[in-house]
Design goal:
The complex is a heterodimer. Chain A is α+β, with helices and mostly antiparallel strands. By secondary structure, chain B is of the alpha+beta class. In chain B, the strands form three sheets. In chain B, strands 10-1-2-11-12 form a five-stranded antiparallel sheet. In chain B, 37% of the residues are buried. Classes of the chains: A alpha+beta, B alpha+beta. Chain B: Component of the proteasome complex.
Chain lengths: 232, 275
Amino acid sequence: MSYDTALTVFSPDGQLFQVEYAMEAVKRGLCCVGVRGKDAIILGVEKKATSKLQDVKTIKKVYQLDHNLCMTFSGLNADARILANQTRLQCQQYKIYYEDDPSVDYIAKFTSQQQQKFTQRGGARPYGISTLIAGFSNNKPKLFQTDPSGACSEWKATSLGKSAKQVKDFLEKHWREGLHEKDALLLTTKALMDVVESGNKNIELCVIRKNECWFLNENEVEELTKITAQLQ
Amino acid sequence: MIDFDPSTFGLAHTYQKEDKDEINTLSMPSAPQVIYRSLNGPTQTNGGNKLNNFKHGTTTLGFVFKEGILLAVDSRASMGSFLSSEQVRKVIEINEYLLGTMAGGAADCQYWLAYLANHCRTYELKNGSKLSVAAASKFLQGILIGYKNSGLSMGCMIAGTDLSGQHLYYIDNDGMRLKGDIFSVGSGSTYAYGVLDNYYRYDLSLDEAVELGVRAIYHATHRDTASGGVVRVYHIHQNGWTKVHDGIDVVDLHYKFAQQKGLVGDGDEAKQRLF
């Protein structure tokens, strides 16, 4: 009897195969990187045009959830859009209930809760994405990762998707505590450039600061990739 | 309440309902009870008879000063012209860092402040951080707006301390939420405001503030028949709250203040002493 066709069935060795397969989808997704610095968090993600006719500029893979909260992902694009919209709504709903901005802890827990919901009921499949959520909590920068099983964990720096292991090794070697925004930005770009297939048009970068998010435009990314290429 | 919406047939009932409630609504927090709305307009308590309408029969006050917040309340409960209790506790200890005062319907205040306490605790356990005073008061406002016009009677103050300092909010059953430095609520509030507004300064010391609170409540209990009993005083500071006075009898206060003013209660005697 196969235990992997239904979500709500455990296998004899305690695995939920559908969730594992969802994580497989994530592993095949495009690479994304998150680096936590002293006063900012950097999110970087690879974007790929499916054909030359597609305008890569219009692909936005870093979602802004609130004025100082952003999310990126690896995996199925459409699932990310839905999850981001739900989380955006939850940010605003929190403000109506409580007047304060939600902390990134709360939002990360909420996102992972949404993902967990779909690992426990029939008729629906898990979200095929792992997300990186970057924001501030009590004025401290934090980076969270969630995955299709609904797990949520905090990271200093991490990466998801294809070549995630290679990037993580690179980050392990070069990340240190208290990175300034500029250094964190260079680190993220370097990490991405090692694995991104070709050119600078295929990277999207975002800097999350205490009160705002800075999405680097095309020229800024190009400049940054040039500087990074010169460093070694 | 079961929702017999035909479009939910064939789908797991719990999935559909939870999904709708949690994700797609920008609504205020939903209260656990069914809301009864009268078709004739706002529900009136006490039959609307002004004479017996002691629904706000109380005096509570709170003010912000340099040492934090002072809350002072009376302790009388009346049902029409019947005095049901002289020892009510009108300051509700929500948790170690939040206090609520009761005015209006005792049942409503007690229940909803306990509900708020429950919610604050759940939030703290789930999220690892405490709810701020602004957030707690906003949450309560959200609930009360859901019950607007259905007959709730509450005029309470939420006072507490959080990372940004000590804050005082006034919340009532109309869904009004005000942040302020001085509030007094209840039938005796006008008398209390008279004393409070006269002597209030931000830079009162703790002793002076306690004295002011006690005096204001005393004067309100003296002139308002629906207020009386004992004065209870609480002080909110950055480490939480302290109960300063558990109950000073207003009758004792009457004689103490009268003596200070040189009054002995008998017009003729006073005249004799003067001349």
